[in-house]
Specification:
The protein is α+β, with helices and mostly antiparallel strands. Bound molecules: adenosine-2'-monophosphate and calcium ion. Calcium ion binds next to strand 3.
């Protein structure tokens, strides 16, 4: 399938960093990790992937700004373009050898996300989206699920871990949603949860306290697949608030109705 030059740049960078992560995953699976322990090893894997992404993306598009989870913000001469990158989303899964993690690359132009790539090197699933050109999983066009009955829907979520977020609120949310849906899932890599919405695997998803690099690529993926994504208010910008609710138009609205008052 033919893609734009921009998507080719992003895919090439994602696959290159993906090779590095996959090698590191192999080490974890065979317990060949250093004496300093697996957490330190994963931090190194994360940083290596981000440096590869930075080098590839900056070589192809010199001057674009770069916001990465590991290295923070690196300004570029071109003030209208910024890469928003998570080199390893789903770090805890990676550390445990659970093959649900991804590289997430979004490109922002004048404040609007115009392209996104999400790549899981463990199963070689590659999601791409470009503004006005649709969303694809391994070159198959994506469309969000069409379900309109909440009790038939499988809904994904995130759970705040120890020392983070509001655990009481999270339990209130789970209780409220659990009573109304066919199934709840918690996969642990936000970018892939968003990609799963675009692919129609999950009908809906919500999570609080995410970072721009968790959301940027997934947001355009969902919109290009015909879905709706917002913050908890229903019409706010998840990139600004860090809170996300998404699904098809119907499921999104139903989730907002339940979650907003909680
Ligand atoms: P990470 O693996 O890159 O940290 C898990 O629910 C999801 O939330 C993951 O995508 C995880 O990304 C993301 N996340 C964002 N901020 C987080 C934080 N402060 N603590 C834990 N997970 C966070
Ligand atoms: Ca992340």
């Amino acid at each position: 399938m033919l893609h734009s030059a921009l998507i080719n740049v992003m895919v090439k960078a994602a696959r290159n960093a993906g090779r590095s992560l996959k090698r590191d995953l192999g080490e974890i699976e065979h317990l060949q990790v250093s004496l300093k322990g697996p957490a330190n090893f994963v931090t190194k894997a994360d940083q290596r992937a981000e440096e590869l992404l930075y080098a590839d993306l900056t070589k192809s598009r010199p001057g674009y700004g770069f916001i990465g989870e590991e290295g923070g913000t690196r300004e570029g001469a071109d003030k209208s373009h910024t890469w928003i990158v998570d080199p390893l989303d789903g770090t805890t899964n990676f550390l445990h050898g659970i093959p649900q993690f991804a590289i997430s690359i979004g490109l922002q132009r004048d404040g609007v996300i115009i392209a996104g790539v999400i790549y899981n090197p463990a199963n070689d699933e590659l999601y791409i989206a470009e503004r006005g050109k649709g969303a694809f999983l391994n070159d198959q066009r994506l469309r969000v699920a069409g379900r309109r009955k909440l009790d038939e829907c499988v809904i994904g979520c995130g759970l705040p871990h120890i020392g983070r977020g509001d655990h009481e609120q999270s339990r209130r949310e789970l209780t409220a949603i659990q009573q109304k849906v066919a199934g709840l899932r918690r996969f642990g890599a936000a970018s892939l949860d968003l990609a799963f919405i675009a692919a129609g695997r999950l009908d809906g998803y919500w999570e609080r306290n995410l970072q721009p690099w968790d959301i940027a690529a997934g947001q355009i993926m969902i919109r290009e697949a015909g879905g709706v994504i917002s913050g908890i208010e229903g019409d706010d910008d998840p990139l600004k608030t860090g809170h996300v609710i998404c699904g098809n138009e119907f499921v999104h609205k139903e989730l907002v109705k339940i979650l907003k008052p909680l």
